[in-house]
Structure formats: structure tokens, C-alpha cells
Amino acid sequence: MTKRSSKFPSDAEVVIVGIGGIVGSMLAYWLAEMGQKNIVGLEKSTIIPSDIASTAHASDFVYNTTHDKLGCWATNFSRNFYEDNGFFLKKGGLEICRKDDDARWEELKRKVESGKAFGTNVRLISASEAKEKFPLLDEESIRGAMWDPDAGLVTPRSQDVVNFAVESAKEKGALSTYTDTPAVGFEIKDGRVTGVKTDKGTIKTNKVVIASGIWGPLMGEMAGVPVPLMPVEHPLLFFGPLPEIQGTDEFLVYPLLRDQGNSAYVRDTGRLHGGMLEWGYYEDKEPRLVDPEDIGNPEKTMISDSMRYLDLEEIAEPLEKAFETTPILNELGWDEKSSFNGLLSVTPDAGSLIGESPEVRGFWLCEAVWVKDGPGCARLCAESMMHGKTQVDMHAFDISRFYPAQKEKEFVKTRSFENAQTIYTPAVHPREPYISHRELYVSPFYEREKELGGFFENEVAGWERALAYESNKEKLNKYLKEVPVRENEWDRRHVPYEIANAEHLAMSDSVGMINLSHFPIMDIEGPDAERILEYLSVAKVGGNTPEGRMIYTNFLDEDGGVHADLTISRLGSDRYRVVTGGADGNRDWVTLRNYRDDMGLNADINIRTHDIATLGLWGPQAKNALGHFIDPNELAIENFPFVAAKNPQFIWRKEN
Ligand SMILES: Cc1cc2nc3c(=O)[nH]c(=O)nc-3n(C[C@H](O)[C@H](O)[C@H](O)COP(=O)(O)OP(=O)(O)OC[C@H]3O[C@@H](n4cnc5c(N)ncnc54)[C@H](O)[C@@H]3O)c2cc1C
Fold this sequence. Notes:
The chain is α+β, with helices and mostly antiparallel strands. It is about 25% helix and about 25% strand. It has 19 helices and 31 strands. Helix 1 (about 20-35) crosses helix 9 and helix 2 packs across helix 9. It is globular and about 90 Å long. The structure holds flavin-adenine dinucleotide.
């Protein structure tokens, strides 16, 4: 156990709130590795590793079987870290498919393909091979399984990694830690963090990282920073003791087993916890989210704040189902005393939350991170803090991906609920539409688009946008015949691809109009507008770029990595309009604003997305079509050349 340092500091270069969990401790480790000094780690528990953290209750599985590239990178990086430092037992892991579950079998095949793309070693195996690897399985109940030979367990516990990481940072003279010292407030001046308040005194600092897990939203609230996550209950039950593993020296005797058809997993506890079986379950119908304010509610809390009482009735059904594939659980009976409902974080889009908050400069987040991703995500956060860039593109975890409306409490709750339903269970389609908080934003054309039979399957950044229109089906019969058939239902799901493709073919032949009103628009105006955009853009947008010229460009980082992909129109000598992608608007706004502020430049950045609609009129006949409404002279090549930007009020035909 790490000893408490004695003298309380009055200042620090970095303060980490939540040093006793896997994320805070790994962050200190990486910051120290990168040469950061004077880091103060605060922990509200009385000990490090924290006994009240989610980390203290984690099952410590590490599988690398997701469909997302950044997730695979984070897990792979973390597993290597655990392995290199002697904290990993590679026993392999199974993901079983129940007898008649065709959908899961298809999903396992897709997972194998994703695994190939992202460099993992997963493969499908037969039911008998699965039984061989995990003898407690009922072979008759399953069709087969996916085998991840690299899966394993963080050993002895992820808490031991916490201790190791904290001690390493201390040995480098970089870190001091204070237990029983919760952060109780933050000092903020001119939009920047200047200090962290505790009941032992205030620490002056201009960099704070909250690595406070499920308590993150409470920390953020004190600083005026919304932290979009919700704690969710995760029942963990113990069965046993299991006679076969009594007296073992190992931390894990059998491989790990996941049964996503039942949203559950099983593993043995090896030589720890009396040699039991551990059964964990993710509620997939009515996940029990917990208001951050209700963490520690004495009527519901058991032993530690991130542990709640368990009601067996709530899990009776999946437990029965678990007996089908692993009947031994039923024979052993459960140990009520040690079973509990652990709390962990779920977010509105299932991604982690990393980076400097858009609301308060110097106030960083490293939140909603699994143990399996802890070292990797902490590494990304540390790189971003120290170097302003990361070794892999982490936009999918970047906190600035969220627009303010997506961080409103109700939005966070309902979207997190939807994500919690799919933590484990059904194969989630990449185009799976969200149900809650639809029609957050609609364009002025929305009603008309609905009349035309618009397919509003998915929203982007809260905007409804049609993927195709039913009314075009008959009109485009000729093109429909040219559209190649998508054989797999999975490829057809949630997309009216026949009509959408026919629309595109028709547009290439003649003309088509696309509503792009979900594209974010920012007007940048002021003496330094040109300087800001010239620095950030790879293409020339200033200098002798004429007014009325539209430029398609990227913002690149110093290694040439693409940071933004957008158009910039020069509207005046010091006036520009930026139009960017729906999912990227908030992040691009943060980039522009931060550069302006960091360089002390002078320009207003006005978000105009909700004032101005965007329509694209494209195809070889676009000019003729527009000529019905606008004086064709205005559209002549000399008046309206390629990549021209004009204000329509000057060219709109008078009779219209
Ligand atoms: C039952 C269960 C099983 C799990 N199994 C797995 C698994 O198999 N694999 C996996 O990858 N993940 C698993 N997880 C998830 C994993 O445990 C968490 O995602 C991870 O531990 C989160 O780490 P963290 O450091 O962000 O948060 P935590 O571990 O919760 O640490 C946050 C720390 O912040 C401290 N803190 C909070 N507020 C303050 C304050 N005001 N001032 C100072 N300190 C403060 C807390 O005391 C705590 O120590 C499981 C979780 C549970 C509950």
C-alpha cells in the first residue's frame, strides 16, 4: 500500500483527481515517464489502491474482440503493458454461440473479419474444441465459439497495477499522493482552471485531470463542465467453491468465457477468493442506471460506494439461462455474501471521454475507461497533455466530439441507457439507429422531406437527415435496375440502398438536390481571421485568395495527419465562412477557438449552423436547373466560376 505524503502542497503542475483507480494511476505513470514533475494525486479513499473504486471490483478480463479500431488499439496497447510488466495471464478466451442462435454465429464471423483487419488473432472453433478448452461447458448447448488466444486476466488484480504505477511515478520524483482527500471544488478564472479545493487546502494549478470514474459527472459539475456518462449497475455473483481448482497456484485455471447470447460471462477465480466461479451479467433490457448524485446512497450501498446490493430476482432469468451452458453453476449454488452489483460507466455513444474539456481550459478528462483499456487510454491522455497530439487518431474518444446538446443530462441518460442495453448482447449494427432524443434538430425542409417519404433512419449530431426518398422509387426505375444487389441482410440493414444508389446515378446523369443542413457553419470575422485560417489550413485561404472563392481543405497536424476536412469560403478580406462535417463540427470549433485564444489572436467565431440551411445542387444539369430561379447571366462561367461563393441575395431572380 502506498503511504500518504505528509506536507500538503500549495501548488502543482498537474492535479489528478482519482489517483487510486486504474486510470488516474496509469496517467501519473505516463506523465512521469514523459518527464512531467510536480504531479499531485488526490484520492478520496483512505488507501491507494482505492477500495471504493470500480477498479477495486473489476473482474479484470481483457478481450480484444470489438469492431472498433481505436478500441482494439487501446486494448492491445494495454494488454502489452500489463504483459510487459508481469501483470497478465494469457489463458485465452471464448465467446460462445448458443445452439440455434444464427444471428450470433454471423456476428462471430464478422468479429473474426474485424479481428483480421485490426490485427487480432481470433478464430472460430467447434463446440467440441470449445468444450476441450473450457470443460465446464455443456457442449450440447452450443453451436461453436470464437477463440481469442490472446485474451487473459490482469493479475493478481488491476489494483496491483495501480500500486505499481503510483510507485513508479513516485520513484521518479514526479508524484505525491494524498488519500482521504477528495477534491471538493475548483477555482476557475477567465475560463481557465487555476486551482483545486480540498478540505486540507487549495492547490494552485493550471492543469487538472479528472480520472474519477463514476464520480466524473459530480466533479465536472463543480467546474461547470458536463461529463457525459452514467454509472450503471453490473451484477457479479460468486458460485462455489469449485472443487476442481482448490489448491491451484494459478490466478486463472480455465480460459475466460463469454456468453453474449445471455449477456453474461464466467471465469474461475483461481487461487483467489476461495477458488470460486464468478458470473457477471450486463442487463440488456432494463439496465439500471444510477444517478451520479445517488452513488453512496446508504440504503442501496454495500461495503463501498461503487458496490450496491443485489436483488436475485432481477437476474433470475439470465441466471437460469446460464445454467444451460454452464450447469456447474447450478450445482455449486451462489454465495450471497460476496455477490454484489458493481458500478461502472456508460456513455451516450459508448466511447471513452478523453481530452481537455471545451468549457474550461486546463480541465482535462480521462473517463469512462475499462480496465482492459486503462493503460492505453491514459497514455493517449498523457500524450495529448504533454505534446498536444497522440500516437493514434483518438477522435472517437475525444471529449470535444460532443455538441453541448449531447451533454444535457436527459440526453446523456437516455442515450447511455440505449448503449447499456448493448454492452454485451446482440450484434450491434454500425448503422443501428438511436431511438431516444430524435428530432433534436430538423431543417426547414423537414416537413417536405417527410411528404416525399424521406428515410430518416439515422441522425447525425442530433440532426435528422434523409438517406433517400420513397417518392423517387418509381421515377428512378431505370436506375434501380442498375443497382447491384446487396446479398447480405447485414449490408442492407438500416439503409434504403437501392433508392439511394439510384438517386446518385440519376444525379450523375442530370441533377439532384441534397439537404446538408446538418453541416455545421462557422463565420470567422476580425483582424486575425485570415491568420488563424491560414495557419490551420493546408490550402491557401488568405493572401491573394479572392473574395468569393471557396476552398476545400484540411487542417493538418504537424505530422501531416488530417485533423479536419472542410470548406472555407472567403467572404471578405477578414471574413470567412467555414462549413464542416456534422459529426466534426464541435471538435473543429474547439480547434479554431483554442488556436485563436492560445495565440492571443483577435477574431469572432460565430456558429451559424442553426441560422443557415445548406443545400447541395449537383450534377451536369445543376446550372440549368438553378437557371430557372437565378438570372442565367449570373451563373455564366465568368460570373460564377468553379468554387465561387456568392451571397444568394445578390443573384436571386427578381421575379422569384
Ligand atoms: C463488477 C465489475 C466488473 C468489471 N469487470 C471488468 C473487466 O472484466 N474488464 C474491464 O476491462 N473492466 C471491467 N470493469 C470496469 C472497470 O472496473 C472500470 O471501467 C475501471 O475500473 C474504471 O477505472 P477508473 O480509474 O476510471 O475509475 P475508478 O476505478 O472508479 O477510480 C476512480 C477513483 O476516483 C476517486 N474519486 C472519486 N471522486 C473523487 C474526489 N472528489 N476526489 C478524489 N478522488 C475521487 C475514487 O475514490 C476512485 O478511487 C468492471 C467493473 C465492475 C464494477
